[in-house]
Amino acid sequence: MTDRGNTTVFHPAWRDRAGFCGADVLDQPAGSISPAQRVHLRAVAEQIKMVHDLFAAFADEYAPFPTELVAAQTRELVAVGLLLARYAVADPGAQLPPGVFSDAAAQRDYERLRARGRAGRSAALRVVATALRETVALLDPLPADLTAPDMRNVYLQLLVSSRRQCRIVQAWSAR
User: Where is each DUF2202 domain found (predicted)?
Assistant: First the structure.
């Protein structure tokens, strides 16, 4: 890890098979984003936290479980957090413990998904796959008017890694 000012970022080589490496967020130039893009960034942050918290909860509950994806999700949270800070957008998950969301609808979604995943490891894997597909739907296609290089880079990496993670979870479902 490297410190840049008061922010810790990961070295680009810190990557796993889930493919996410948001280490170079601050290396990309900032752009300008519209109010709608700020809202979208908050939605992406909330979705990434949702998937992360589901992975972490189910990894603690079920063995075996693809726990390496929790680390990838943590890196995604860090990258999105860097974007939120860079563009002065309030982080909807800041200082909230796992499984707690500032938005009431997101809290209900988390609790619903968490309850469905309690039916067993297979159910938990299906829940995580569904949440990952929702992340892909949120990011694909990338907004055409998104011109900020740092955001385009992170969104593209999130899209690719979410697809990879979904394939990994589906492979685990066959075990």
Answer: 49-167
CA distance 121 to 59: 9
CA distance 124 to 79: 25
Q: Which two tokens mark 139?
A: 């990011």
Residue 118 structure tokens: 């309690």
Token digits for 161? 């890694």
Q: What is the pLDDT at residue 23? A: 52
Here the tokens at position 116 are 């469905």
Rounded-to-integer distance, Cα 64 and Cα 82, Å:
32
pTM for this prediction: 0.84
Q: Partners of 8 in the beta sheet?
A: 3
DSSP string of 153-164, one letter each residue? HHHHHHHHHHHH
Nearest-angstrom CA–CA distance, 38 and 144? 15
The full set of domains in the chain, from first to last, is: 37-173 (1.20.1260.10)
Q: What is the pLDDT of residues 10-59, one digit of tens each?
A: 444 444 555 555 556 677 889 999 999 999 999 999 999 999 999 999 98
- CA torsion 102→103→109→112, rounded to 10°? 60
Amino acid symbol at 53: D
